[in-house]
Design a protein that fits this description.
By secondary structure, this protein is α+β, with helices and mostly antiparallel strands. 51% of the residues lie in helices and 19% in strands. It has a five-stranded mixed sheet, sandwiched between helices. It has a five-stranded antiparallel sheet with strand order 7-6-10-9-8. Strands 12-14-15-17-16 form a five-stranded mixed sheet. The protein is flat, with a radius of gyration of 45 Å. This is Histidine kinase.
Amino acid sequence: MSYVLVVMIPVLIIGIGVTYYFRQQAMDQAIEQARNNVDRIKNQASTFLRVPTDISNLLLFNKELETVVNTEYSSILELTKTYHAFDLFNEYLQQYRELSAIRFFTYNPTLVNNLEFIPVTDQIEETRWFDQAIHARSIGWFYVPSTPDNPADALALVRRVHFPEYQSQGVLMVLINRYEINNILSQEPFDTMIVDSQGYIVAAKDISLVGRTFDSLDIGVNLSSQVTGIIDTDVKNEPSKIIVDELLPASSMNGFQIVSVFSNKSIVNDANKISLIGMLFIGLVLLVALAFVYVISFLTTKRMLGLSRQINRVALGDLKVVSNIDGNDEIGQLSRQFNSMVSSIDQLMTQVVETSEQNNRLEIAQKEIKLKMMASQINPHFLFNALESIRMKAHIKGEVEIANIVRLLGKLMRKNLEIGSGLTTVKAEMEIVQSYLQIQKFRYEDRLDFELRLDKSADKIYIPPLIIQPLVENAIVHGLENQEEGVKVEVEIQNLDEKLLRICVKDNGVGITEERLAEVLTSIAGPDEEEKSRIGLRNVHQRLTLSYGEEHGLNIYSEYGVGTEIYFTVPKGGSLNV
């Protein structure tokens, strides 16, 4: 009874409510989607129609058009030359795919219809679009059907153009590209149309409807009495909804209505099927579950009471309790986990004592290590003092070169020891490189020559420490191999642009063969590093890629017998990845 009252009846009530909710939600979402689609189409159409509007505004005051329209031509040859020279309409058509044609209807009897300039006839004057355009100052939008003198069958912008200087007037027509405006509606999920003020469908998802009147669709809706809103009606004997919104382009005497039509059945059909299947499934599950509830509840309660008694004994402090409830179900697993828990608690209590003793021993060991590290700091000071004493002795005895080299060695060692894991400036890094090169120059004498070129504007740019010196060391060590005449090392730092700094180390040593270069490139990008290497190319490459990304790693170019060039780039002011 508890199961029926607490589970079955509430689930059935909730299921019915959820079914109705899903159905209503699907309908609301469809309406909201249709509204959003209509708003989007309205914005796209407004943007689309702004192009012909702007073109008509330009032509309204165009002097070349004014001259062509108001000139009286004495011969066909003169008229033909004028038509041939006038290319303004064609230029606009080539620039804007929204347009399909531009025409001007004029009262000048000396002009001939060339589908750009069309003399006004009685038939044209009787058309509604011409009559409204010639008597209004604002822009008009009309669906214009085709005639022998004016092939159209498209939406057109029409407006009166007045020429005060000549006391004349005419009508400008800008025909819209029907394929482009239909393309705005081609991806809509529902049947959507754009209807002009005369009731003509000027664009539609179903392009076969273009040119027909909305009344001919027999939907039973009068758009003239429904400017905006949602209409409930029957379309093809099915309950449907029609969403209507108004579009009025700027500076226009009339506008359009955007109409979206969808049937209720197409929206809620899937929701109804899913809800029905769900209700049947829920009912079946509830009935089957009802049969098991009674049996399972009886068996479960008996075993749970036994386990509960064991738990109470543990709560009283007896950690030697063992549960004997068997089975592979949840209660059997819970019994075994209970036994494991009690055993773990007993073991943990023992381990806590042992861990406490280990922590004490570890704390003592860490203090000893810290004392040793503090003591080890004496050694660098002793070494610097010793080097300084040697330098002074050499200087006193006139060994200026040896004194200078000892000074550079001490400076190099001090800077290397002072460098942490942060960043250093390009200027500081180049000081280390210069000290290292001068020491090597003392060692190799005429066999080594070097040149440093540094853009002064790059002095204060930050880079990772010890990122250039390993490349210089590599150039000297490998450049002097089997090279009796010596080697020249060039270090150049320059600004590539506002964002990148380029650092290049080049030598004219023995170079690297293609096979060896391939091995080097594989090695610096590999996961492991040889134990004999110090900082090495791989270390520099890995630090660059980890700091700035793969594109800022080392680039190595070498030609055997000619030399080697290694360069990389560093972002200016960029943050490190690590």
